[in-house]
Amino acid sequence: MNLPRREHPGQNPSSSFKRVRITGPVVQNHEDEILWGEVKKFADLIPSEPDPNFGRVREIKEELKKGTYFTREMIEETAARLAIRFMTKE
After folding, report:
1. DSSP assignments along 51-80, one per residue
2. Cβ(72)–Cβ(80) under 8 Å?
3. Is residue 56 included in any domain, yes or no?
4. Which tens digits make up the pLDDT trace of 36-89?
5. In 10 A of CB 44, how many CB atoms?
6. Is the Cβ–Cβ distance between 59 and 68 less than 8 Å?
7. CA distance 68 to 77
8. d(Cα 25, Cα 42) in Å, to the nearest integer?
9. Is 43 helix (H, G, I), strand (E, B) or coil?
10. How far is 27 from 36, CA to CA, in rounded Å?
11. What total number of domains does the chain contain?
């Protein structure tokens, strides 16, 4: 069974598809080699930078351990107490 070939806009239907191999950048001259060395040096420094939220996450964990930070259970318990207080007659 021969299926009709799909045509792409702007392409000659009789042309065949070519495979393209994607390769890494190729250094053309010595100056580019130096530039790529500098880029690599600074790119290697990027992962060593700490996550900006890391300090805040650590603070929240410490507050949870101390009990000074409101947990979901504490908030739900307080909400239940307030609901009981407002629903009962004084």
Report:
1. PTTHHHHHHHHHHHHHT-S--HHHHHHHHH
2. no
3. yes
4. 888 888 888 776 666 777 788 888 888 888 877 777 888 899 999 999 988 887
5. 9
6. no
7. 15
8. 17
9. helix
10. 8
11. 1
Exposure string for 17-26, b = 16+ CB within 10 A, e = fewer: eeeeeeeeee
Question: Would you say residue 42 lies in a domain?
Answer: yes
Q: Could you tell me if residue 3 is inside a domain?
A: no
Q: 69-78 pLDDT, tens per residue?
A: 777 888 899 9
Compute how many other C-beta atoms are within 10 angstroms of the C-beta atom of residue 27.
13
Token representation of residue 50:
């700490």
In a domain, 22, yes or no: no
d(CA 25, CA 35): 12
Q: pTM score, two decimals? A: 0.29
Distance from C-alpha of 26 to C-alpha of 33, rounded to nearest angstrom: 9
Supply the range of the domain harboring residue 76: 30-87
